[in-house]
Write a structure and sequence with these properties.
The protein is α+β, with helices and mostly antiparallel strands and about 190 residues long. The chain contains six helices and seven strands; from the N terminus they run ββαβββββααααα. It folds into two domains: about 110 residues, Archaeosine Trna-guanine Transglycosylase, Chain: A, domain 4 (Roll), CATH 2.30.130.40; about 70 residues, LON domain-like fold, CATH 1.10.4060.
């Protein structure tokens, strides 16, 4: 098992491998985190907040999150920092502690990436729906990634990010280890919307 020590960024969002996140950084702890990532050429962990808020005292994160790497950044006119990050690999938090400025440092174990699988023929309507979602709201996908509508893993991860579902539902889908199981869950969620 591959174990790392990384800073965590608890957010009211769920990031999946291959997904994108644009963040406006202004709190000292997260400016420190970005600086650390640049110096160490490393990533940071994105976890959904279980209890607490994004700003102020360190929030309690869920135990499954995604390692993120900064792919672009710039200084905003207001002096804040904007970063774009991409999800790389899921992880499980083994332990965490609050360090300086309420930044959370965690020891995590990386979860092996899901193997690519072909889309099942009975679920191709999900690929069609995803194409529409990406046309509407997926500008970062066109800019940074090869679109792969025949790959069950990729489709299941992008649908999880882009569908209008609750954060706990998104977290539950992130925690699944099988893209076909995730697609079946997504199909049920879509039918209930």
């Amino acid at each position: 098992m591959n174990t790392l020590t990384i800073p965590l960024f608890p957010l009211h969002t769920v990031l999946l491998p291959g997904g994108f996140l644009s963040l406006r950084i202004f709190e000292p702890r997260y400016l420190d985190m970005v600086s650390y990532c640049f110096r160490q050429k490393s990533g940071f962990g994105v976890c959904l907040i279980r209890e607490g808020k994004e700003i102020g005292k360190a929030a309690l994160p869920y135990n499954i999150g995604t390692l993120a790497h900064i792919i672009d950044w710039d200084q905003l006119p207001d002096g804040f920092l904007r970063i774009d990050a991409q999800g790389a690999q899921r992880f499980e938090v083994n332990s965490h502690k609050v360090i300086t400025n309420q930044l959370i440092e965690a020891e995590v174990t990386l979860i092996p990436n899901e193997l690519d699988q072909n889309m099942p023929s009975d679920l191709t309507d999900l690929s069609v729906g995803l194409k529409e979602l990406i046309k509407e709201q997926g500008a970062l996908y066109h800019k940074h990634v090869l679109l792969d509508y025949n790959n069950a893993t990729w489709v299941s991860q992008r649908l999880t990010e882009l569908l209008d579902i609750s954060l706990p539902q998104r977290q539950s889908l992130l925690e699944l280890n099988n893209p076909l199981e995730r697609l079946n869950e997504l199909e049920q969620l879509i039918q209930s919307l």
